[in-house]
Amino acid sequence: MTITVVLADDQALVRAGFRVLLETEDGFDVVGEAGDGAQAVALAAEHKPDIVVMDVRMPGTDGLEATRRITADPALADVKVLVLTTFDVDEYVYEALRSGASGFLLKDTEPVELLRALRVVAAGEALLAPTVTRRLISEFVGRPEHRRIDTAAVKEITDREREVLGLVAGGLSNDEIAAQLVISTATARTHVSRIMTKIGARDRAQLVVLAYESGLVTARRH
Q1: What is the pLDDT of residues 92-140, one digit of tens each?
Q2: For 22, which DSSP code?
Q3: Are 177 and 184 in contact, with CB atoms under 8 Å apart?
Q4: Fewest CB within a 10 Å sphere: which of 106, 149, 156, 222?
């Protein structure tokens, strides 16, 4: 299956580099390029790509606001956002994850890792494994202004679901969770789906952010 991609970055050379990388790799199709967030939102609405690769800092509408608009639009529910940044600790990136981005990478990530990340996100998983993601969560999640989750929703989480959520927060896939808990992959998937519904998370990345915010998972500093 071909993964369709929109590239959003205010630097034309960066977009060109990503385009060349993706177009020389089987299974990818770049369907649009945007120089700012507003264009990215418009292209997402027009093409409904599998993934928008989104820069954070762009003139006009930045990547954070563009991510919010895309993830808040029910018509774009199947569009994933993968944030790229030059900053390894950036509160804007954390807010992008809160807003529904499926993960983020640094711009100096090796090409093979970018391709892997796109495949992971397109498959419906969240890109949560990089240490920098955990650093962001650890850095910002403890601040009172970030604890916005409904405490009633937290109380509905069962002990088993807490266990599953801890593994999701550790970056484990459904298959890996199933192997660790000695359950079927379908059962692991069901647990994750139920937790997302209870907490009100759009996808696995937002689920993990909300889990840290609620205290269901404890952030560790690295």
Answers
A1: 666 777 777 887 777 888 888 889 889 888 887 666 544 555 565 666 5
A2: H
A3: no
A4: 222
Quote the crossing angle between the two packed helices 91-98 and 204-214, to the nearest 10°: 110
> Percent of the chain at pLDDT above 90?
39
Token code pair at residue 209:
């952010």
pTM: 0.70
Q: Which of 173, 155, 156, 151 is nearest to 164 (CA)?
A: 173
Residue 88: CB partners within 8 Å, gap ≥ 6? Answer: 106, 132, 135
Tokens of 111: 């090409």
Distances (CA, A) of 107 to 28, 33, 90, 94: 19, 17, 13, 16
Domains of the chain: residue spans and CATH: 3-127 (3.40.50.2300), 143-214 (1.10.10.10)
Q: What is the DSSP string of 41-85?
A: HHHHHHH--SEEEEES--SSS-HHHHHHHHHH-GGGTT-EEEEEE
Cβ pair 54, 101 in contact under 8 A: yes
Reading the block at residue 162, the tokens are: 């807490």
Alpha-carbon dihedral sign for residues 189, 190, 195, 196: positive
Please state whether beta strands 103-106 and 80-85 pair in parallel, antiparallel, or not at all (unpaired).
parallel
141 has a pLDDT exceeding 70: no
Nearest one of 150, 169, 168 to 218, comparing CA atoms:
169
CA torsion sign for 188, 176, 203, 92 is positive
**Other CB atoms closer than 10 Å to residue 46's CB: what's the count?**
11
